[in-house]
Amino acid sequence: MRVSNIISLSAIGASTVLAQNNVTGQLGDAAVTTGNPPGKAAIATLPEKAFWKGSLNGNVKGYISAKSAANGVGIDYELSVSNLPAEGGPFVYHIHVAPVPENGNCTSALAHLDQYVRGEDPACDPARPQSCQQGDLSGKYGKISSSEPYTARFHDPYTSLTEGVGSYFGNRSFVFHFANKTRITCANFAVINTNTTTNTTTSYPSGTVSVPYPTGTGSTPYPTSTGTPSQSSPSATSTITQVPYPAAGSVLSAAKHLAIVPVVVGFLALL
Question: What's this model's pTM, rounded to 2 decimal places?
Answer without folding.
Answer: 0.67
